[in-house]
Amino acid sequence: MRRRRIDTNTVSLFSFQDIMASVIGILFFCVLLMALDIVNQAPRAASSEDDPETRLMEKVRTAKAALAEFAKHTDGLAQRLDRLSQTDPEALRKRVQQLQAKLSAKYAALQAAGDTANGAARQAQQRRAELEEKQKELDDLEKRLAAAKAQLDAPGSGPKLSFIIDDREDRLEPWLVEVTATAFRVAERNPRGTFMEFRSKTDNQRLDLFRSWLQTQDNSERYIVILVKPSGAAIAHSLERELPTLGFQIGVELLPEDWIPF
Fold first, then answer.
1. Of 145, 188, 247, 257, which one has the greatest count of Cβ atoms within 10 A?
2. How far is CA 11 from CA 15, 21, 81, 179, 220, in A?
3. Residue 223 and residue 175 in contact, taking contact as beta carbons nearer than 8 Å
4. How many CA atoms lie within 13 A of 61 on its CB side?
5. What are the tens digits of pLDDT across the range 120-164?
6. What is the pLDDT of residues 66-121, one digit of tens each?
7. How far apart are CA 185 and CA 174, in angstroms?
8. Residue among 224, 219, 222, 212 at smallest CA distance from 252
9. Cα 77–78–79 angle (5° rounding)?
10. Are 191 and 176 contacting, i.e. CB atoms less than 8 angstroms apart?
């Protein structure tokens, strides 16, 4: 008669302590076998210079020391296993969460510090660019100042006279007109401003040229200051009579012949 096959699920209760006990037992038997082997080999080594009993005892001591070291290591593993088995999983999970939160906070702080450092670097770069631009402007001004100083130091290059004209309440800006026997020289009050010169063979031609230019100017923004030198006194008198007809206000200053107003 055929036997009925019974399929059942067996549950193994073979714990870690059982495994350790089994290992220790196996090692114990191994040590015993080694001891028996040593005892059996003792007669063969009778002719040896060393005492067989001493050699046997030395091997036994070595085996005992190895066994004690292994037992110590096994006890340590057992203690660690006990500690792990006694640890509360919920408390361990909370601890892990706390460590993760601290790690996230540290990461956020590092990222914020990095952003702050990047912002400071950008500001420093922008300030450096501004300083370089200011330095270029300063260098340009120094070059212009050196050129102007060289021009002033050159013989006969600078003016012998500078006119200081106060601002008017009506805010009209002056045209300074130097009148000589050979030319009209016109300049703005600003020494770096516009400079023009009208020359011709006769006084009338010169006066016509100046009149044509003056008609292009706005008498609501400008007035005329006539700087008369002795050689141009005659034509300055004619100019002084004609300017009011063009709607310009005038002023008159007398200059020595060798003075340069601008």
1. 188
2. 12, 20, 22, 128, 116
3. yes
4. 6
5. 888 888 888 888 988 988 888 888 778 767 765 654 444 444 556
6. 878 877 877 777 777 666 666 667 776 787 788 888 888 888 888 888 888 888 88
7. 14
8. 224
9. 90
10. no
pTM, to two decimals? 0.38
DSSP string over 205-233: HHHHHHHHHHTTS-TTTEEEEEEE-GGGH
Q: How far apart are CA 92 and CA 29, in angstroms?
A: 41
Q: By percentage, how much of the chain surpasses pLDDT 70?
A: 77
DSSP for the chain reads -PPPP----------HHHHHHHHHHHHHHHHHHHHHHHHHHTGGGTTSSS-HHHHHHHHHHHHHHHHHHHHHHHHHHHHHHHHHHHS-HHHHHHHHHHHHHHHHHHHHHHHHHHHHHHHHHHHHHHHHHHHHHHHHHHHHHHHHHHHHHHHHHSTT-S-S-----PPPTT-PEEEEEEE-SSEEEEEESSTTS-EEEEE-SSHHHHHHHHHHHHTTS-TTTEEEEEEE-GGGHHHHHHHHHHGGGGT--EEEEE--TT----
Block residue for tokens 């600078």: 158
Sheet architecture: strand order including 183-188: 195-199, 183-188, 173-179, 222-228, 250-254
Give the Cα separation of 152 and 159 in Å (integer). Answer: 9
Residue 226's DSSP bridge partners are: 177, 252
Distances from the Cα of 36 to the Cα of 41, 45, 54, 212, angstroms: 9, 15, 15, 140
Q: Tell me the C-alpha to C-alpha distance, in Å, between residue 171 and each of 154, 166, 250.
A: 36, 10, 14
What is the identity of the amino acid at 94? Answer: K
Q: Quickly tell me which residue has 């020595």 as its tokens.
A: 256
